[in-house]
Amino acid sequence: MNSSPLNVSRRTMLRSMLGGSILFPGILSELLAEDAARSSDPLAAKPPHFAPKAKQMIFVFSTGGVSHIDTFDPKSSKKGRDGSGKDKLMGSVFPYSANKRCGTEVTDLFPHLRDSMEDICVIRSMQSAHFDHTEAAVGMHTGSPTFARPSIGSWFSYGLGTFNQNLPSFIVVAPHLPYGGTQVYTSDFLPAYHQGTRVIPGEQPIRNLLARTKQQKIQELELGLTAELNQNHLKPRQDDSALAARIKSFETAFQMQTAGPEAFDVGSEDNKTHEMYGLKRGDTKSFAWQCVVARRLAERGVRFIELIDTGSRPNWDSHGEMKEHVPLAKAVDQPLSALIRDLKQRSMFDETLIVWATEFGRTPGKEGKNGRGHHGDCFSVWLAGGGIKGGIVHGETDDIGKSIVRDKVDVHDLHATILHLMGIDHTQLTYRHAGRDFRLTDVHGHVVDGILA
Q1: E strand intervals along 328-391
Q2: Which of 45, 172, 225, 443 is the most buried (most CB within 10 A)?
Q3: 415 and 274 co-located in one domain
Q4: What is d(CA 25, CA 27) in angstroms, rounded to the nearest whole number?
Q5: How many domains would you assign to the chain?
Q6: Per the domain annotation, does 414 fall within a domain?
Q7: Are residues 294 and 397 in the same domain?
């Protein structure tokens, strides 16, 4: 998992060592055989650095910049914060109250999630990587707002592999692309088979995926021959990750002819599940559908699942009117709360990490008629499940929601903590590229111990 130059050209180095008579041929043969087995199954499950709290992750990203003040870090509208005056300060537009079991305050935009707060840790002291949509969204996903880097899902796939070889290790369910486009799920310099596979909600989530037919035996023979030819072509090109990824994609695509349709067959869920998520029969496009699919994919061993809530427009970027948050919140509130309850009742909650995030928060000052501007100095994210201490709030902002006053958490810290929960030391998950070792957290990041169970 800790990559070194050996990962780049291990086979070439071993052959060079044989040429220099450094190793006995028998030992070299064993090493080459081991290397061949590894390269033939690049997505095989890999051991973590230490015992993990979680085995898989569901990452929910709400595009546009959700207002922390009007959701998970509510601020009073009293004391002159009525949109008047020089600074035009504006407290929470929506009423709020506390969860009766743990005391965490949440506005009325999220009544279902408020009722689930005893299972959720809210970080109110998050600091964004940038105040621009694209840079902040890419930064939240890759750790770098300015340079192309692999997505966190790709790092998961590279470091841990997957449990299910019949489905991709990293799946992104996205009706529309967020700011930053495909960069949010790219593998960049990591081997290409670690790139996220995008699924578009609808009647055919994975396009051009044909179910197996009565001609299956013939198809298997054809693909077997193709695989043999592909491997012969790959042997002298072991360092060509793009070619290896393309070959791997053929193999996965064949297996997905059976596994894919079954995994996305939400119609097979019972009426109780549909009602819990607020999902209507036959609906294949709502966020509720995305959440049910996320649970089904986690159930089937997909390592990293991302749900994109809305695209670049319309989204949570409420510059002119904060009431634009209302329908967006209604679409995700019940399904997210149901996802937590569903995982718990299936004994999957403790091994599945759920993270909800957005690119930044909104200003405490009024903008437009009744909206807010971009605010990267502080905002809220929340985590639940695998190894997270539920029912707590970490960090604190000032009384108007403008600045962090306690326990700042930046994007690198969040990533370091997520990796830690998956059993990975973020300083050791590296990949050699362009003459240096890269990692998701670059040269930064600290595990936020205070939120760990």
Answers
A1: 352-357, 361-362, 374-375, 379-385
A2: 172
A3: yes
A4: 6
A5: 2
A6: yes
A7: yes
